[in-house]
Design goal:
- The chain is of the alpha+beta class.
- It is built from 12 helices and 7 strands.
- The strands form 2 sheets. The protein has a 5-stranded mixed sheet with strand order 2-4-3-6-7, covered by helices on one side. Strands 1-5 form a two-stranded antiparallel sheet.
């Protein structure tokens, strides 16, 4: 193990030696000589052959030679310590390589290097993650979680090679725009990245060039707890207004107007409505505000009652479960907004072409 550990150290040191050798070429030459000898031993060790170069012994002897002269009794324990440290270094290096490969594959297949918490990955798209809040309670569970991450990664790899057809998913959502179906847009009313994405879509005229199915998706963890406290209620009113075919005086869909107001408007104190629903409104305050908006949009009291009833109905609960199943198990989304258009799956904030 000593020669393998030495090769790892020399390989890492090569980054610094390359810079130093610009000014001191002799250092670079000595380093290359050592690296070549190390590689000869390393290559044989990893192929389970006997190391003929004695490089490992050379390293160990060079370390112990000074100790031998001052305190011979320490040679044996230090020799054992060197072997232990070498084994630890090799194990840590292998683990780092495996974890790097795992993160890279996850980033490529799922769009995030952190399978359980997509928001924690700075390398992927900015998203509101669909987190698994389970934490391992013991080493056995931790190992199980680690392998389950690999299962999700390999399960999502085929998604990279498939053609994504907007017509293949039976989502419950609201339709915006006219013409042929061109896109599916999955969002959470409380997600700030979804807000940014929605504004970019409005500014670019995305909703004016074909039909889009907007899918309100209140993010839940594996215990059924919602990430944003009023998202489910807002989505219920959006669905309810759509089912009731509620329209404003100028013929706009009330369901879409509710979403626009949450994502693009502020109250009289210049506070974003999304922030208010997420951080300030209780469930009662949120419902009162949504009801007031319905009145502003010109929805009569009878229709308002239908919308409110739907938002608390078993039918709506089934819609939430159905959409959740499609997003998590069929699309393998780890975060939203997630969109399907142009034959592909796109995660993160929409960027106009």
């Amino acid at each position: 193990m000593t020669c393998i550990a030495a090769f790892i150290i020399l390989a890492i040191a090569g980054i610094f030696v390359a810079f130093i050798s610009i000014f001191k070429p002799k250092v670079g030459k000595r380093y290359l000589k050592m690296l070549k000898k190390s590689w000869g031993c390393f290559g044989k060790r990893i192929t389970l052959q006997k190391c003929e170069t004695g490089f490992g012994d050379d390293v160990k002897n060079s370390i112990l030679s000074r100790v031998l002269l001052k305190n011979p009794k320490l040679v044996k324990p230090l020799s054992a310590l060197i072997e232990v440290l070498s084994i630890l270094l090799v194990v840590v290096t292998i683990w780092s390589v495996v974890e790097s490969a795992k993160a890279g594959l996850a980033l490529w297949s799922l769009g995030t290097c952190n399978v359980k918490h997509a928001e924690a990955c700075s390398l992927g798209s900015e998203v509101c993650s669909i987190d698994n809040n389970s934490e391992p309670q013991n080493p056995i569970e931790a190992i199980g979680f680690w392998f389950s991450d690999w299962g999700e990664i390999f399960g999502a790899i085929p998604d990279k090679f498939r053609s994504w057809d907007v017509n293949q998913f039976d989502f419950a959502g609201i339709e915006v725009g006219e013409g042929d179906l061109k896109a599916i847009d999955i969002f959470d009313p409380g997600c700030v990245v979804c807000l940014q994405s929605f504004r970019a879509q409005l500014d670019s005229g995305f909703f004016d060039n074909g039909k889009t199915i907007l899918v309100p998706f209140p993010i839940q963890d594996n215990e059924g707890k919602f990430k944003y406290k009023n998202s489910k209620l807002i989505a219920g009113y959006i669905f309810g207004a759509d089912r009731a075919e509620a329209k404003t005086a100028d013929g706009a869909k009330v369901s879409f107007e509710i979403l626009k107001r949450i994502y693009t408007e502020k109250d009289e104190e210049h506070r974003s409505y999304q922030d208010l629903f997420n951080d300030f409104y209780s469930a009662e305050d949120a419902e009162a505000k949504l009801t007031a908006w319905l009145s502003e949009f010109g929805v009569d009291e009878e229709t308002q009652a239908k919308i409110a009833t739907f938002a608390h109905s078993d039918e709506y609960e089934e819609i939430v479960k159905k959409n959740n199943n499609i997003v998590v198990n069929n699309i393998h989304a780890k975060g939203i907004p997630t969109m399907i258009y142009d034959g592909g799956k796109h995660t993160g904030r929409y960027e106009a072409k």
